[in-house]
């Protein structure tokens, strides 16, 4: 029995890096797409911790595709992803240098500042995952779509999110057309759009009937879940060490509180001994009448 066209060996590849990301479950499709499209130039608008960029680069390395991933981001964050410090950029830069020096290039700044670097029809795969308000994603798509060659692909992440100001779904409804688009529901949703006529290796994806499309979605959702579990297992030691740090800090704080209480008890014991010694001393007994007289005078 022949395996379905989408269940190729590439779909079972596991990324080498699993930084925090809402994109974990899309890595199997990313690997399949790299194998089918064989892109030379990949541009990513919005990289954050770099998971998707590294997933593309890792797939290219294992499949021997001589591709370059251009990752664009301010690495400052936004109101959807949250704001963060330079440690995020430092992680992405270090990982890119150590594992993908010849495959990943980082451009830090606003997307518009890098637009002139890319000629029209020079990009094979464009991944849009920046700010997610409708106006923002529309601007990104409008400014960058002409960089994608005929038969190239645009990916839209978060097409299934409709709350908290997300508007990618609106743009997806406007640009997706039968025969040139495919949508995944898992992992916050991923829209796949062919610019112009799809190339032969991808035509079956875009022309899939309802039953076949359901099978594609179910299989990649399952593979994505396996990938995410693998990522969770790989990240578990780090999470455990973080828990240990919290426990150690709490234990140290508890020990400090214990030592403080012990010190107070010791001081209280010394004061009690001092008072007891004073009350049994000769001077205390001799001055007893004076203390009695003082109490009587206060009552008077």
From TrEMBL:
Q: Which positions, given as ranges, span the membrane?
A: none
Q: Name one Pfam family in it.
A: Methyltransf_24
Q: Which SUPFAM superfamilies match?
A: S-adenosyl-L-methionine-dependent methyltransferases (SSF53335)
Q: Keywords on this record?
A: Methyltransferase, Transferase
Alphabetical GO CC annotations of the entry are: plasma membrane
GO molecular function annotations of the record: methyltransferase activity
Q: Does the keyword Repressor apply?
A: no
Does the UniProt entry include the keyword Protein biosynthesis? no
Q: Which GO terms describe its biological process?
A: DIM/DIP cell wall layer assembly; methylation
Q: Which domain of life is it from?
A: Bacteria
Q: What InterPro entries does the annotation carry?
A: SAM-dependent_MTases_sf
Could you tell me which PANTHER family the record lists for this protein? RHAMNOSYL O-METHYLTRANSFERASE
Q: What is this protein called?
A: Methyltransferase domain-containing protein
Q: Organism, per UniProt? A: Microbacterium pygmaeum
């Amino acid at each position: 029995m022949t395996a379905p066209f989408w269940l190729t060996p590439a779909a079972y590849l596991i990324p080498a890096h699993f930084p925090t990301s809402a994109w974990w479950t899309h890595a199997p499709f990313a690997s399949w797409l790299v194998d089918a499209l064989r892109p030379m130039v990949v541009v990513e608008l919005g990289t954050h911790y770099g998971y998707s960029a590294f997933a593309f680069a890792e797939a290219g390395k294992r499949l021997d595709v001589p591709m370059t991933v251009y990752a664009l981001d301010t690495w400052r964050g936004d109101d959807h992803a949250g704001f963060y410090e330079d440690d995020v950029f430092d992680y992405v830069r270090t990982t890119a240098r150590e594992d993908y020096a010849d495959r990943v290039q980082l451009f830090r700044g606003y997307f518009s500042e890098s637009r002139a670097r890319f000629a029209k029809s020079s990009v094979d795969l464009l991944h849009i995952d920046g700010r997610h308000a409708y106006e923002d994603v529309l601007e990104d798509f409008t400014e960058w779509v002409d960089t994608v060659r005929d038969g190239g692909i645009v990916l839209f992440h978060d097409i299934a999110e409709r709350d908290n100001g997300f508007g990618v779904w609106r743009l997806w409804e406007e640009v997706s057309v039968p025969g040139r688009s495919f949508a995944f529901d898992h992992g916050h949703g991923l829209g796949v759009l062919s610019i112009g006529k799809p190339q032969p290796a991808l035509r079956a994806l875009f022309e899939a009937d309802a039953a076949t499309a359901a099978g594609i979605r179910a299989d990649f959702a399952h593979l994505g879940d396996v990938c995410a579990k693998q990522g969770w297992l790989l990240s578990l030691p780090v999470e455990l060490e973080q828990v240990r740090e919290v426990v150690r800090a709490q234990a140290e704080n508890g020990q400090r509180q214990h030592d403080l209480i012990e010190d107070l008890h010791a001081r209280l014991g010394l004061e009690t001994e001092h008072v007891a010694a004073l009350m049994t001393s000769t001077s205390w007994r001799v001055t007893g009448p004076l203390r009695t007289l003082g109490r009587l005078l206060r009552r008077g």
